[in-house]
Write a structure and sequence with these properties.
This protein is an alpha+beta fold and 347 residues long. It has 13 helices and eleven strands. The strands form three sheets. The protein has a five-stranded antiparallel beta sheet with strand order 9-6-5-10-11. The longest helix is centred in the C-terminal third of the chain and has 24 residues. The chain starts with 8 loop residues before the first helix and ends with a helix.
Length: 347
């Protein structure tokens, strides 16, 4: 009976934890983190969870370096671009990889969808390069409907891992009524209202278009929660066959024990067959089990599942520490964190 009401965003945010600022959401978990730190005798124990990633994959790691550790059969075509690289060199790299527009661009160091864009032409790419003061990755745009975040974990002495979370991403879309513009339809969408300024900039060519009645139009092709993507609990997809697929992907990555594979796949049949899987990113120690942001999930269950993953990180880290891996000193990690958040503007 409240469907016609348009509640203020601050009120929606209070009662829907998926919209909370990240540090507010995680603050109640600080005592549990402290308990795990005491148990592991280190405030930065989690930096040892992946020995192949600097600081275990907390903040500031190179996405390109991580992607280069994954078998090419599971990757989209992509090129790494240094800051200030000549346009002629960039176009030659794209030609060598047989990459055509549209493409997806992202900073080599970033997180939470920071400056990830779909680019449709050379002019837009040049503009993006000119406004981005750091190295970037250009990937082919993978036009698959299914995008997932799959959390994977394995103890160092184990020869098989396990999947601890599966998130399916539902891209932001509007359905036309034959009268309203894209902008007006987005203003009726709660998720879109949290990011209207950014969405207006990203879809400015469509903003004032009237969408035909019944036509569904996808607005944001990047699976970013901050830009309206809905995260859905897809743990029902987990089974032994899927674990075997991710063992095949993860076991060859020496020194990788915990993280989230963000990927696209052509179909669920192909997912279980281990084919037509394109891994867009692999995140490490601070990976979140995205299924907890499902709108139908409860806050209690969310904290329960996150604490479960925190315990897994602590167990893996303890095993690596026993093997002689040294945690990153606290001062060094704080400096890296400050630099990362200053760069990305995520505070």
């Amino acid at each position: 009976m409240f469907a016609h009401l348009r509640f203020p965003l601050w009120l929606i945010k209070i009662f829907n934890y998926e919209y909370w600022t990240w540090w507010i959401f995680f603050l109640p978990l600080a005592p549990y983190w402290l308990y795990l730190a005491i148990r592991n005798r280190s405030l930065t124990y989690f930096t040892t969870v992946n020995t192949c990633i600097p600081d275990g994959g907390v903040f500031g790691e190179s996405k390109n370096d991580i992607l280069n550790r994954i078998s090419p059969q599971f990757l989209p075509a992509g090129v790494f671009i240094q800051q200030g690289e000549a346009w002629e060199t960039i176009t030659q790299k794209l030609e060598n990889k047989k990459m055509a527009f549209p493409v997806v661009v992202k900073p080599d160091v970033g997180g939470r969808g920071f400056r990830v864009h779909k680019i449709n032409d050379a002019q837009a790419l040049q503009h993006y390069l000119a406004s981005t003061p750091q190295p970037i990755i250009i990937q082919e745009y993978v036009d698959y409907d299914i995008e997932l975040g799959v959390m994977y974990a394995r103890l160092p002495e184990e020869t098989k891992g396990r999947i601890t979370s599966i998130t399916q991403k539902e891209f932001l879309s509007v359905t036309g009524d034959g009268e309203s513009t894209v902008g007006e339809l987005l203003a009726q969408n709660t998720r879109a209202r949290f990011a209207m300024d950014e969405l207006r900039e990203r879809v400015k060519k469509q903003w004032n278009e009237v969408v035909p009645k019944g036509q569904r139009r996808y607005i944001q092709p990047i699976g970013n929660h901050c830009l309206g993507t809905k995260f859905l609990n897809a743990n029902h997809l987990n089974n032994q066959r899927l674990t075997e697929v991710f063992d095949e992907i993860a076991l060859p990555i020496e020194g990788f024990y915990y993280g989230r594979f963000d990927l696209k796949v052509s179909s669920f049949e192909d997912l279980y067959a281990g084919k037509n899987i394109k891994i867009l990113e692999l995140n490490g120690a601070t990976s979140e089990p995205g299924h907890v942001y499902d709108p139908g999930y409860s806050l209690w269950k969310a904290y329960r599942d996150i604490m479960h993953n925190m315990r897994i990180v602590a167990d893996i880290s303890a095993a690596n520490i026993r093997l002689g891996v040294k945690p990153t000193p606290l001062g060094q990690l704080l400096q890296t964190s400050r630099e990362f958040f200053a760069m990305s503007g995520q505070l």
